[in-house]
Amino acid sequence: MTQKKLLFIDRDGTLIEEPEDKQIDSIAKLDFIPGVIPALLELKNAGYIFVMISNQDGLGTASLPYEDFTPPHELMLKIFASQGITFENICICPHLPDAGCECRKPKVGLVLDYLVKQTIDRDHSFVIGDRETDMQLAENMGIKGIHFGCKNSATWQAVVAQILMQARCATELRKTNETEISASVNLDRQNEIKIQTGIGFLDHMIEQLAKHGGFSLSLSVKGDLEIDEHHTVEDTAIVLGEVIRKALGDKRGIGRYGFLLPMDEALAQIALDLSGRPYFVFNGELKRERVGDLATELVPHFFRSFADALKANLHIEVKGENEHHMIESIYKGVGRALRQAITKTDNILPSTKGVL
Fold first, then answer.
1. Are residues 30 and 62 in the same domain?
2. pLDDT one digit per residue (tens) for the chain, 356 residues
3. Which of 78, 242, 292, 337 could be bridged to 270 by S-S, CB 3.0 to 4.6 A?
4. One domain, residues 70 and 132
5. Whole domain around residue 102: which residue ranges?
6. Residues 148 and 206 in one domain
7. Domain count along the chain
8. Active-site residue 224, yes or no?
9. Among 12, 25, 130, 235, the one annotated catalytic
10. Among residues 164, 186, 214, which one ends one of the domains?
11. Residue 349 within any structural domain of the chain
12. 99 and 182 housed in the same domain
């Protein structure tokens, strides 16, 4: 099921100014919040879809007749549309506060279809509104809320920064009869690295990968090392690939491609594409059976599992005389390639297909 990055946006006081009498019942009262149009365009270009959600007390009654409400509302939509801004849905509760309806915010009746169909990308969707009921709605929906007009979101420019500058973080857990693994990553923070796989040399190599990749990583592994290290190495690579892929989200703004790295006599050439299509090629000969407590035959297997879980195209070519140097240059090189590929410079998707 496709999940979407959705912004559930309040109308009065968030998209348009709210007058003192709380009713926009004439065109003369229609006034846009400063900066709202360029902000929504930036968010649209970042892949967000808009849903308007508003309580309109007594709409359709003598206190707010449709013939008074409709002209400014339709003009607002036309002005937004003229600038390239449209709303997937416009959800309005017309009831008075004491009506006991199920659609008035902060109840979820207006958005129930989204919740039932599970189309909300909960990690990247928000409710934006100027009232506490909007924040309660966000809590009831299980997504984050942005209280427009408050300290950290006083303007639409601040709202855009709050949404688009989120740290790319993820956590992944995997438990099988052979291993139990937990991993947490922050692609936008460096130097917080804690690795414990039970295999000392593998710890050192993954630390090199994260260090040179420029991201924080916490990785804890309990594996059946009393049998051998195969399951631990394979499942660690899978979880590492999955947690990085999860943190990348929709991959908008990333470099996508990434490296050539020498280490004394050894030379590792890494070609990486975060394409969404897993493929792995390894060219190199590791003659020693083990380096430290790691079987060298598991090095290509680690990166094959990693590429599959990351859904990346990864080519590795290595040559040298010292297997320790060769293996370490591979992990460092893949880290450097990842640093280039995951670096975010804008919010444009680096693909003509429209998806990665």
1. yes
2. 678 999 999 999 999 999 998 889 999 999 999 999 999 999 999 889 999 999 999 999 998 999 999 999 999 999 999 999 999 999 999 999 999 999 999 999 999 999 999 999 998 899 999 999 999 999 999 999 999 999 889 999 999 999 988 788 999 999 999 999 999 999 998 879 999 999 999 999 999 999 999 999 999 999 999 999 999 999 999 999 999 999 998 888 888 887 788 889 999 999 999 999 999 999 999 999 999 999 999 999 999 999 999 999 999 999 999 999 999 999 999 999 999 999 988 777 788 777 77
3. 337
4. yes
5. 6-164
6. no
7. 2
8. no
9. 12
10. 164
11. no
12. no
Q: Virtual CA dihedral for 89, 94, 95, 97, nearest 10 degrees?
A: 80
Measured in residues, the chain has a length of 356
Select from 197, 217, 200 the least CA-distant residue to 209: 217
Burial 247-272 (b: 16+ CB within 10 A, else e): bbbebbbbbbebbebebeebbbbbbb
Catalytic residue among 10, 25, 134, 235: 10
**Domain presence at residue 351:** no
Distance CA 55, CA 80 (A): 20
Is 264 catalytic? The answer is no
